[in-house]
Specification:
Blueprint lengths: L2 H6 L2 H10 L1 H12 L6 H12 L8 H10 L4 H37 L6 H11 L1 H9 L4 H10 L4 H26 L4 H29 L2
Helix pairs in contact: 2-3, 4-6, 5-6, 5-10, 6-9, 6-10, 8-9, 8-10, 8-11, 10-11
Length: 216
């Protein structure tokens, strides 16, 4: 199966981006177009890196396109995506730690969550690593939480481990589904990954809360 075929057949994603239009739509298809080149894997890594700190387009679409074209390499693509995303998260953490008043706040303002900055701080103070973990799994703008993690001086080791767990779960879930079900699962991922991510995030938080209050 050619990578060209994988790019051409992403109806769920196509419908979603058609709604958004404009710059994001063009960026989305530009990212996806890399699956049609010999540089798909390095492009996946780079997109995963920059998405965790500044870039608006998540790497999932490119990951799915590459994995559908070559299901046997789905785990490799998931690992590349996870590694890139964690490295990008570390960059975001650094931006927040050292440059929150300049670069960091501009990025947070760009994504329209500046007014929720205090709330994010409260979440970090209350839940710490769980915030990073949930942000890594769900469609919440991950970059906002990586920058905030650095700004609020979250433990760096905790931050990295939570990022690996959250991002790894999300991308390897996609990889596993494609590895076992191939092209037939693509539309399901396209349509339902966001819902599944939110469900997992809610269950994850519920589990930690239960452990906190029910443990002897």
């Amino acid at each position: 199966m050619s990578e060209q075929t994988a790019v051409a057949q992403t109806p769920g994603a196509k419908a979603e981006t058609a709604k958004s239009g404009g710059m994001l739509n063009r960026l989305y298809w530009w990212v996806l177009s890399w699956a049609d080149t010999p540089y798909g894997t390095p492009a996946l890594f780079i997109v995963a890196v920059v998405e965790s700190s500044i870039f608006p387009i998540p790497p999932d679409a490119l990951l799915v396109a590459l994995a559908v074209a070559r299901p046997a390499k789905a785990y490799i693509y998931a690992a590349v995506c996870t590694a890139g995303s964690v490295i990008g998260g570390i960059i975001g953490y650094g931006i927040g730690y050292f440059f929150i008043e300049t670069i960091g706040m501009k990025i947070i303002e760009l994504y329209g969550v500046a007014e929720k900055y205090t709330m994010i701080q409260e979440l970090y103070e209350k839940y710490n690593a769980i915030v990073v973990l949930v942000a890594g799994v769900t469609p919440i703008p991950y970059k906002v939480f990586t920058i905030a993690g650095g700004a609020f001086k979250v433990s760096f080791i905790t931050f990295v481990l939570a990022s690996i767990a959250g991002r790894g779960f999300r991308f390897f879930l996609e990889g596993v589904l494609i590895y076992y079900y191939g092209d037939q699962i693509r539309d399901f991922i396209d349509k339902h990954l966001t819902k599944l991510s939110w469900i997992f995030g809610i269950l994850l938080v519920g589990g930690f809360v239960a452990i906190k209050y029910l443990a002897p």
